[in-house]
Amino acid sequence: MLADWLNHKEQLRHYVLKNIDDVDVVDDILQEVYIKASSHLHQLKSQDSLKSWLYRITHNVMMDFYRSREIYDELSDNLIDDVEEEQALDKMAQCLRPMFDCLPEKYHMAMIWSEVDGLSQQEVADRLGISLSGAKSRIQRGRVKFKSVLMTYCDIEIDQQGVVDFKPKIECRHLAC
User: Are the CB atoms for 29 and 16 separated by under 8 Å?
Assistant: First the structure.
């Protein structure tokens, strides 16, 4: 078998190189082909069909290779930036949460449900037992009051992309952050 293998190995190598996008695994595939061919030599019907038989085994091994490869999503080039941005937003959210407690009671729960929990304005209205227009008004006024609290207790740096940095002011330290 070894002599026959050596006669066909280079042709099989070219065949594999044409079909596999990873040149580092070509020798691994050829080794697997040799092992399968050697262990299944008894299945070869005729010596005349050896070449096509080896090509069929090679094809099957390549298909197994493609099936066994795990599919990975390509990571974006700015993954680190995305992670850092997400961490910054999480940190900012933790800092903002106690500031909702600074809102007058009338706006506090409307803002928490709307802005933190993501409820629709109709759901906020239902929970508060008021009309939709009343909830909209409360949320809008709550946003204005929250902005005032935010500007009072935090230094925020903003550029064209959004919030770049923020720091709680000295008098804000009791709120968390």
Answer: yes
From residue 95, alpha-carbon distances to 17, 45, 107, 153, 176 in Å are: 56, 76, 19, 10, 6
List per-residue pLDDT tens for the chain, 177 residues long: 677 778 888 999 999 999 887 788 889 999 999 999 888 888 877 777 788 888 999 999 999 888 887 676 666 666 656 667 677 667 766 667 778 888 888 999 999 899 888 899 999 999 999 999 999 999 999 999 988 888 787 777 777 877 677 676 655 545 544
Q: What are phi and psi of 161, to 5 degrees?
A: -85, -15
Strand partners of residue 98: none
